[in-house]
């Protein structure tokens, strides 16, 4: 009795195993397997005798050396082919009866992993073009191909997504190859898109899929925007810097040539994507532009070339005389607000120097400096080396030391260059070499000697530099007579008072002498007049002249 239609699913290349789904009857003589041609006619392929236990395989070329029939009448076919997809029948024969049980064989072949071949070198936006072909080979039965972009199914869209699937069969194997071509119109956003394809096929256990490796395409698109940059991107460009202008377009591939528009140039300068300017000056300040070579799409930027000029008058080495005036000016011209500061002998000055009457301490190295804070490295400085010269000036002081055994004589000297000082004793004219000098500061120093004279002496201090030789003397009493000078500043005041008193006394004396002289002349004239009145009027000229001479002599003697 039949147990119903049975199907065996086999994998291509594997062994097909078909049990005979009949109960073995009593009195079995032999078993046979056959398959049915498409027109229904049978082709016997295997025979097994139940009594003799021998097996025979029919001479069917398709199944030569591929068949095996077991004792329980299970038929095995090695190396399954697509042509094995048939209706096979197991036959068990007794003397009285023939039992048959059909088995349907289905063969499945998994396709190869799909590949995207004949790929486009690049894609262009706004243009429908062949992206590539997805090929899955050697499938059975036929499979289906689906395209994906970034993991999402690409559905056909007219003039944007055009898919064409073709299936071909290998006549010798009966296996199918699926080829799906994709025409696609990309956008800029597809620049990094991953395209893949999946083949869907049927296996013994149902529907399955295999995915291709993803593919990314270079998407070409036109430039929509031009950008100009200034390199290096520093906060401030200063005179002497090198500037590189860089122009870029946002297309792919990016444009290689541009037109650069430079201030003062009427026409654009054709160049690669960079334009270099070396050692720029302040007149390079202005608006810079660049465009595509067809003059479409332009961008601009403004460049400011910072500058800083400093003028110091006078500068360099300047020699002046003490007491002279020296006007000094330090002026700046710059692209931003800048301030000057002064340094004298490495110390910053609180204010600018001003010299209405030069002093020795005004001498030194002056630097007028300025800097632009917002521009790195933009600073200027000029120097003035001021030399203040003066002839030697001397002031001498004396004092008896507290031990009453000696006197200290000091020669206070001013002058530049530093004067050389020499002491002598008047009378003997001998030079004293035991002088002690203080430090020379701001054009001043002092030389002092300690002496114990037994009698009054005169000391002479000689100070000499390249400008003049100055000599001053001072009388010093014997050691037995103590004497003290007032401190310097008070002494100056007192000497002025003494001088004023002396001038006053001399003035009074001279005034009194003049008054006495005038009174004497008036008295003499009065006496003369009296004498002349008593004389005779008829004196001759000779007498008159004699009298005149006598009067003159008298006047001289009186005087």
TrEMBL record:
<keyword id="KW-1015">Disulfide bond</keyword>
<keyword id="KW-1003">Cell membrane</keyword>
<protein>
    <submittedName>
        <fullName>CD166 antigen</fullName>
    </submittedName>
</protein>
<keyword id="KW-1133">Transmembrane helix</keyword>
<keyword id="KW-0393">Immunoglobulin domain</keyword>
<dbReference type="GO" id="GO:0007155">
    <property type="term" value="P:cell adhesion"/>
</dbReference>
<keyword id="KW-0391">Immunity</keyword>
<dbReference type="InterPro" id="IPR013162">
    <property type="entry name" value="CD80_C2-set"/>
</dbReference>
<dbReference type="InterPro" id="IPR013783">
    <property type="entry name" value="Ig-like_fold"/>
</dbReference>
<feature type="domain" description="Ig-like">
    <location>
        <begin position="222"/>
        <end position="304"/>
    </location>
</feature>
<dbReference type="InterPro" id="IPR051116">
    <property type="entry name" value="Surface_Rcpt/Adhesion_Mol"/>
</dbReference>
<dbReference type="Pfam" id="PF13895">
    <property type="entry name" value="Ig_2"/>
</dbReference>
<feature type="domain" description="Ig-like">
    <location>
        <begin position="392"/>
        <end position="472"/>
    </location>
</feature>
<dbReference type="InterPro" id="IPR003599">
    <property type="entry name" value="Ig_sub"/>
</dbReference>
<dbReference type="GO" id="GO:0002250">
    <property type="term" value="P:adaptive immune response"/>
</dbReference>
<dbReference type="InterPro" id="IPR013106">
    <property type="entry name" value="Ig_V-set"/>
</dbReference>
<keyword id="KW-0812">Transmembrane</keyword>
<keyword id="KW-0472">Membrane</keyword>
<keyword id="KW-0966">Cell projection</keyword>
<feature type="transmembrane region" description="Helical">
    <location>
        <begin position="504"/>
        <end position="526"/>
    </location>
</feature>
<dbReference type="InterPro" id="IPR007110">
    <property type="entry name" value="Ig-like_dom"/>
</dbReference>
<keyword id="KW-1064">Adaptive immunity</keyword>
<dbReference type="Pfam" id="PF13927">
    <property type="entry name" value="Ig_3"/>
</dbReference>
<dbReference type="InterPro" id="IPR036179">
    <property type="entry name" value="Ig-like_dom_sf"/>
</dbReference>
<feature type="domain" description="Ig-like">
    <location>
        <begin position="102"/>
        <end position="211"/>
    </location>
</feature>
<dbReference type="GO" id="GO:0005886">
    <property type="term" value="C:plasma membrane"/>
</dbReference>
<keyword id="KW-0130">Cell adhesion</keyword>
<dbReference type="GO" id="GO:0030425">
    <property type="term" value="C:dendrite"/>
</dbReference>
<keyword id="KW-0325">Glycoprotein</keyword>
<keyword id="KW-0677">Repeat</keyword>
<dbReference type="Pfam" id="PF08205">
    <property type="entry name" value="C2-set_2"/>
</dbReference>
<dbReference type="GO" id="GO:0030424">
    <property type="term" value="C:axon"/>
</dbReference>
<feature type="domain" description="Ig-like">
    <location>
        <begin position="323"/>
        <end position="385"/>
    </location>
</feature>
